Amino acid sequence: MKRPVAHGVSRFLAAALTALPPLAAVLPLAAQQAARPPADWLAPRATLRVEAAVHERPADDELGIYLAIPDGGLLPRNPAVDVRDAHGKVLPHQILWHTPADALGVVFQPPAANEPRVFVYLSGSAGAMPRPAASPLKPSLFVFTRPGNPSLDHARRMASEWPPAQGAYGGPTDRIGVRWNPFGHDDHFSSWFTGWFKLDTRESLYLATISDEGSEVHLDGSLLVAWPGRHTRRDGARGQYGKQVTLEAGWHRIDYFHFEVDGDQEMCLVWRRGRDGKDALPVFMEGSAWGRTGRASVQRIDAADGRTVGWVEGNLQADGYLWTGNQPVHLHRLVCRGVAPAAGVAAAWDFGNGCVVPGAAACTWLVSGAPTARQTGQLVVTSPAGVSRQTFRFTSFTTPRPHALGSPADRLLYRQAFLDRLRAVPAGQDPCAAWNGDLWSTLVEILEPYKGGPILGELFERGWRTLQTLPAEQRHALEDRWAETLRLLGDTARQLAWIERLEKETRERARQSRWREERVACHLYDTGDLAAARRSAVRLRELAGSPDEIQRAILRLGDVELFSGNRDLAARHYADAQMRYRGRGRLGGAEGLSRFEPSRAIRASEAPGRAALRSLRSTTGDLKPSDAWKLYAVNDAAQSATIRTYLDQGALAEAQTALTQWENDTPMSKLSGDLLLTEARLYIQAGDFRRAAALLAVCLGNDVMTSQLPDIMHLQLDTLMRLKRAPEARALAEEAVKRFPGLPVAGRAEAILRDTGR
Asked: Three-state DSSP class for 652?
């Protein structure tokens, strides 16, 4: 999704700022006077002052210290630069590069050894950016790359124009030897490396270039080696494009120019020193051969008029990405620097298209679309003295690490980022109208059963029209997750209203049947209205047309009878559904189970149920009652173990799939309680305690004494307490104490009785 560049605040943010009371009403009279710079402001014409901390000093003062100052609209137009130490002493400096959309690069003379800070004053200029006075500084080693119009002429222009490297991005590097663009896309760019090296004595050197596409080496301001045109590295791979030169002791400057159109990239400077011998292959000029300029970083930016100034970090390198569609979706962790908590000071993030994240010092934002598309945002900092704005772009200079769909932490991170994106859109607007297919496919993949409720609430309540335009597969997945969310919210009126809406507005017969089935379950599990559940189940059966729909409708009729205590009638429905399901498999030529792909590797020893169920379904002929009982018992135990293994691994989706398969294949297993108990465990793990309590109540109402009864009671006690249904929990606790003294369930029951005031 390509957003327009923001030239100012959005309408939403402007309205919010307009709604603030006038400054004259909230500021004292003294504060309403024209703002004056602080007393320690040493450059009267400057509008900004940058405080920087020196954290790496050069071995030689001539190499200077490098500082990158963020721009993007923060700095005055065509800034004049004045660098001073903490005592006000002027420090000689050079302008290395300036791209107003990104940053200004300055190299300055190191302050005294005991001075860790410097101050850079900036003032605007009506004409061209002023050139600083000549200095003996020797910045080294730096690389700059500029996109578009790749050519050696374009590369050389970066060094000759003023200010240097306009429209480029640059920074320190360790050597002239890379096979990628360090600051952008790997095709259609020009590059300029510049640095100094020092010889202790007069020496003869062989300097050569190895490049893919054209390159030049300039030594001390003059062309030394040229390998122009479009070519691969093959003909110069051994350093054939070079020249022998004898240099005096002292400092020498290298400027290396290169361009890249497409294909592989390479820009390398190699050398052979006189002591290496004529037959030795040239090698890289490694970092130790180059002078190394020191480093400083911006700590604070002050405005002469008292405005609080902040700048963004995290926009030039994504934290990671997920790739589920045509293009990856990158996740950026944006941080506002330079703004300390203070009354009346707030930061907001404006991403265009009405997306504003207010009052946040940090923001996680998802960026999708073509890698070459320019996407921007704006950091807006408001303070009593006014507003500062920085427009920034999104990119990644190096390939971010891939996030993993199989990682719960990564899925949670993206869910939170999607929620931030949705809430950034003002109320009353569709929050997903501008989303592209990559965002939608990523969202579908990172949503999990019973998770992502706030996201789905925003989507379905505010973005309904956009949802209707999605491909059926994506829309169905989101609707199913929304149904789970509605169960957890506990508002059955809202739940039933949405079921009605989803059934009414879909034209797909299978989806209509799915929502009728959901209505039966809502009445059965959530409202406890058996009469309404029976009416809904009868309607489901009457409207069922396909074999699938008929089989599922009969299953739900069986559930209604089981919950009503009519076990014999439930058994007849289950037997009918079971035979229909198996008959469909034979008529359709299906053998065994339907294809099932888990989201993680499950060892065969962890999933015994598949083999057991396959053997059960493939059994032919009539079985003796004793043999049938044994086979069903083995199958139920195996299926229960399989699903509990999935639950132990946090694989809720796989557990749901396996449970549905079990229910379709052998619904008679519900009568023994094994399937119901396993389903209850699934709902407990999902946090759907209403449905778990309803299922466990049916298990307890069977009046069948099994070895699982203490476990069922224990689970029901915990579930009832979660639901704050203390009277029911007390009654069950008293029964558990009487029936199972000495077992863990009795201990839990005693605790409940004590806590609820026995």
From this structure: helix
Place of tokens 């083995």: 634
Please check whether residue 139 is in contact with residue 64, taking contact to mean a CB–CB distance below 8 angstroms: yes
pTM of the complete model: 0.83
Percentage of residues of the chain with pLDDT beyond 90: 78
Instruction: Give 684's Cβ-side CA count (13 Å radius).
Output: 24
Close Cβ partners of 2 (under 8 Å, ≥ 6 residues apart): 369, 370, 373, 374, 375
Residue 167 CB burial class (10 angstroms; 0-12, 13-18, ≥19): middle
Fold for domain 142-289?
Jelly Rolls (2.60.120)
Give the C-alpha separation, 712 to 723, whole Å. Answer: 16
Using CA atoms, how far residue 1 sits from 97, 193, 353, 414, 460, in Å, is 30, 34, 11, 18, 21
Rounded CA-CA distance 69/49 in Å is 11
Place of tokens 């709604």: 19
- Taking the C-alpha atoms of residue 616 and residue 244, their distance in angstroms, rounded to an integer, is 83
Kindly report, residue by residue over 140-164, the tens digit of the pLDDT.
Answer: 999 999 999 999 999 999 999 999 9
Sign of the Cα torsion 314, 317, 323, 329 reads positive
> CA-to-CA distance for 580 and 11, rounded, in angstroms?
60
Residues facing 142 on adjacent strands: 172, 194
Beta bridge partners of 336: 312
Cα–Cα dist 512/663, whole Å: 21
Pairing label, strands 142-147, 215-219: unpaired
Cα–chain center distance at 546: 42
Rounded CA-CA distance 509/449 in Å is 24
307: helix, coil or strand? coil
Please tell me what DSSP assigns to residue 526: I
- Alpha-carbon Rg of the chain, whole angstroms? 36
Contact (CB, 8 A) for 95 and 47: no
**CA–CA distance from 355 to each of 11, 306, 374, 378, 457 (Å)?**
10, 28, 17, 11, 18
Tell me the C-alpha distance between 170 and 144, whole Å.
4
Instruction: Please state, in angstroms and as integers, the Cα–Cα distance from residue 472 to each residue in 236, 432, 506, following that order.
Output: 56, 17, 10
Q: Considering the chain, tell me which residue range(s) the CATH 2.60.120.260 domain(s) occupy.
A: 142-289
State the maximum Cα–Cα separation within the chain, in Å, rounded to a whole number.
105
Give the DSSP H/E element, type plus range, for residue 476.
Answer: helix 472-489
Q: Which two tokens stand for residue 732?
A: 């069950």
Looking at the DSSP bridge assignments, the partners of residue 105 are 68, 97
Q: What are phi and psi of 305, to 5 degrees?
A: -90, 5
CA dihedral (83, 84, 85, 88) in degrees, to 10, reads -170
Q: Take residue 608 and report the two structure tokens written for it.
A: 């015994």
pLDDT digits (tens, 9 = 90+) for 420-468: 999 999 998 999 999 999 999 999 999 999 998 999 999 999 999 999 9
